[in-house]
Amino acid sequence: MKSNKKGKIFEYNPIKNLLKGETSRRDFLKWVGFSTASVTLAACKGPVIKSIPYVVKPDNITPGIPNYYASTMIDSFDIGSVLVKTREGRPIKIEPNSYSEYFNTTSARIQSSLLSLYDEERLKNPFLKGKESTWNKIDNYVIWHLKHLSQTKKDIIFLSHSFPSFSTKKLIQDFKKKYPNTKWITYDPISYSKALDASKEIFGIRGFPVFNLNKSELIISFDADFLGDWSPENMAKSYVQNRTPQKNMMQHIQIESNMTITGANADIRLAKKPSDIKKMLFEIFQKIFFGKNSNDKNVDKIVSLINKMGSKSVIFADGDQESYELSFLINKKINSHALQKNSFFFSKESNDDEFENFLKNLKIGNIGGLFIHNVNPIYSLPLSIHEKVKKFIKKIPLTVSFSMNKDETNEVMDVLAPIPHWLESWGDTYPVSNIYTLIQPTVQRIFNTRQFQDSLIIWGGMKEKNFYEYLKKTWIKNIVPKSNVSSFNEALFLGVVKIINHNAISNNYSNNNKIQEYEKKIGNKKIEKNFELRLYTKISMGDGSQHNNPWLQELPDPITRSTWDNYLTISYFDANKMGLRNWNSGDGSLNGNCVDLIQNDKTVIQNIPVLIQPGQAIGSIGLAFGYGQKKGKLSKIVNGKNAYRIYENFLNIQNNIQIKKVDKIHKFACVQLHHTTVGRNLVRETDLDKFLNTPREIWNEEEKILTHKGMISLERISIWSQNYKKNNKSKEKKNGHHFNLSIDLNACIGCGACIIACHSENNVPIVGKEEIEKSRDMHWLRIDRYYFSDQEKNNNEENIYKNPKVSFQPIMCQHCDHAPCETVCPVGATTHGKQGQNMMVYNRCVGTRYCANNCPYKVRRFNWFNYVNNQKFDFNMNNSLGKMVLNPDVVVRTRGVMEKCSLCIQRTQYVIGVAKKENREIKDKEFETACSISCPTKAITFGDTNDSTSLISKKIKNPRSYKLLDFIGVRPNVSYQLKIRNKKNEIDKMK
């Protein structure tokens, strides 16, 4: 098979025959391109020889030429089908595997997991009873205890996060043959059990239903953050497919308590506290199924809309099991096209009942051996049980922790068996119906670690030498024969396989008793007047398993724009009643009051900073998971609070919450302190009706300049040479390439994946919380967030805080043809390239910062310090291991130098070089920037405008296209497409 550098297969060649058969080592190296010359550093050698590169060169690895490997990223919260870019044996970037049908986008967390590979605080050797040991001693110790336990009736428990691995599950069964008392218990820090149990009740399958939104025309979401982490797979890609402005454009109504990125992207958003949301959902269910009337006019309007749109509608809900069941039943009733009848996600296996049973056995002492795989329950269990569990675990005769880093749970375990990073591991997953993926190592193990599957093979006395051998045998026997590939090597090459001629899963299971049960129910119980707490996940931190990752800690939250912390979000009106404030200090930072969080008259969490959040429902508060860990060097910087302490019964909604103001003042590390555009026309927006039925001049007016000749188009005036048109357009824009970037504001959901991609590609430094507080962030790309009053003519503060419209706008260097930064640089460090890119000559820059002062977009970043080899910035660039993530194609900047977006000039020049070597023209879409590759919704388009047939040329000519601050006359090479909201007449009075 032949593949381009993005991994997309487009034709066949003789390598497929090679992959089918047995090959000699010489032939293998010839085709695969591995070489001992690829060994770069003593600690990190070239890829394991049995790995199959996704992009195959016929000769050995060439320095300077990247290789791509198909693999699967999986941890306790995320899963993704990815391509791993390596340079001389070092993984340096994670990109999406476009060949995969599912899980084919790379979130900020998936990309950032790369940096965890080079974490100097990883466990480097096994430990026994708190002392460094050897694997031989560990094996003898564990096997002796297992043999002893096999003679008793006590259970041997494997406690792990969801790990949907076909081969690992088979391995556990084989292990069980020798040790029959073995049990596998799934424990996810953030449980999906309520949704899975609801699916079992309604569909007869314990899996999360697959929804495809590309044919939907109406989404109604009840507190489900489906553009965030509600579903096991990010739904942004299919969501945007039908958000193109046209007559049947999808309409999105969001009813939620916290302001989420899903609510921020909605056409209509209602802010309600969780109990009111569930009541509304219940009344809609009863009206649809039994015709019962409601006193809520919005219920009638929503039901009318659902009846009108029928199967083109889809309903989402989050919260308890009942909420999921109600939404699933409604979707079945209306025969929603979005609900895929034979597809379920199996990547989440949370089971609260099994875990509760485990806790009971733990309490009565019925567990003789406990193996904890890559989870940290001592940190993530609620306050009511975590101390008890800690005490019970200490009494177990055999305790083994399989983990990558030291954590709170490790402190109570006898054996620490360090496991490799997923980029160093073999494995497989079964994440969705009839789809299997493979995990392959892209680098040899850096430390003395061992996969827990390899440990099971040794402890279970199995005949296979290692897990690779076991995995390969399992696939050759059970998966390859019924899949769309002909060999295990071909499966490795693709990274994902599909089962053919499979038995379809039927979800026509009907539970009429459940429907009748809801007919008799009156609705929600009355909730006390105290606050309702909505626990949620940030796009940066997720469940907290990557808390020691500086890329994620410094990634701004898309809504609050804060970094390095979590906080209690509260409405403007509730904050006023309690005397809680946020204010800007003299040094430019954001300050705020702190509170204690009390449940049932017991203080659960102390000194939580309060952030007043526009759009937060009155009577509700929000708190993010994943913070408050005490292990790792970043824990000394992060002042977060552990939200798991109040995650009782694994419910993300907690009732009867009180907050008490304390004297402590908190300083936020916030990258955006202004919330509005102050009346400037920066984020252009209109509604669908106006877009379809009025001329372009009404909703996307061309900016003109007033001169002595009257209003003149910007194309006709320039402060530059009068020969600009002649010299610039006739020569520069027709010879070679001229690069442009287009950003569709209708497709951008603000997820931040592009920011991490930019960090990874361009060696952007981490500056830490203290520098962020001083507004000294180094992000080359930022996503500005603006609030607007939902009442067009009334933009006062109260309306903005009550229920604002939200718009996101990615901003990077605009690469102006008439760049104001170029004219003021006294040393000519910033120049304009023939290809349209504004370039920085770093070794010429003397740091006057004139360019930053003269930039209207404020996208230039100044290196106040050396962020490399500086103990003050003890992040990945401060140690030899962390530096291995750096892209060798991009220089690391030093103190006193200005830096900014280059439109990934190293990537464009690489594509040009490859095409030149192959003596061919460059095809459209071969040019990509890091941000355009990573964008899950393809909101960012990059390309050559000299190719009139290119997608970028079509985007620029689109009537929705405009240039930011175009009236200045700087002629940027970045354009935007204005945002369209679908606010139809029959529901525009819902607010």
Structure commentary:
The chain is an alpha/beta fold and 991 residues long. It has a 7-stranded mixed beta sheet, with helices on both faces. A 6-stranded mixed β-barrel has the order 22-28-24-27-26-29. Strands 13-12-11-14 form a 4-stranded parallel beta sheet. Strand 11 (218-222), helix 7 (236-241) and strand 12 (251-256) form a beta-alpha-beta unit. Helix 3 packs parallel to helix 24 (753-762). The longest helix has 17 residues, at 274-290. The chain is globular. The two termini are 55 Å apart. 53% of the residues are buried. The model is unreliable at 1-50 and 729-733 (pLDDT under 50).
- Chain-averaged pLDDT: 85
Distance between the termini: 55 Å
Describe the biggest sheet? Answer: 7 strands, mixed
How many whole angstroms does the radius of gyration measure?
A: 28 Å
Shape: globular
Numbering strands along the chain, what is their spatial order in the largest sheet?
7-6-18-17-16-8-9
Proportion of beta-strand residues:
15-25%
SSE topology:
Blueprint: E1 2-3, E2 9-11, H1 15-20, H2 25-32, E3 67-74, E4 79-87, E5 90-96, H3 108-117, E6 127-128, E7 131-132, H4 135-150, E8 155-160, H5 166-178, E9 182-186, H6 193-203, E10 208-211, E11 218-222, H7 236-241, E12 251-256, H8 261-264, E13 268-271, H9 274-290, H10 297-309, E14 313-317, H11 321-333, E15 339-345, H12 352-364, E16 367-373, H13 377-380, H14 383-394, E17 398-403, E18 415-418, E19 427-432, E20 435-439, H15 452-459, H16 467-479, H17 488-494, E21 496-498, H18 512-520, E22 531-536, H19 550-553, E23 562-563, E24 568-570, H20 572-578, E25 582-584, E26 590-599, E27 602-612, E28 620-624, E29 653-670, E30 685-687, H21 688-693, H22 696-699, E31 704-707, E32 710-713, H23 724-732, E33 739-744, H24 753-762, H25 769-773, E34 782-788, H26 797-802, E35 805-811, H27 820-824, E36 830-832, E37 838-840, H28 850-854, E38 861-862, E39 898-899, H29 905-917, H30 930-934, E40 940-944, H31 951-957, E41 961-962, E42 974-977, E43 979-981
Parallel strand pairs: 8-9, 8-16, 11-12, 11-14, 12-13, 16-17, 17-18, 22-28, 24-27, 30-43, 33-42
Antiparallel strand pairs: 1-2, 3-4, 4-5, 6-7, 6-18, 10-15, 19-20, 20-21, 22-29, 23-29, 24-28, 25-26, 26-27, 26-29, 31-32, 33-40, 34-35, 36-37, 38-39, 41-42
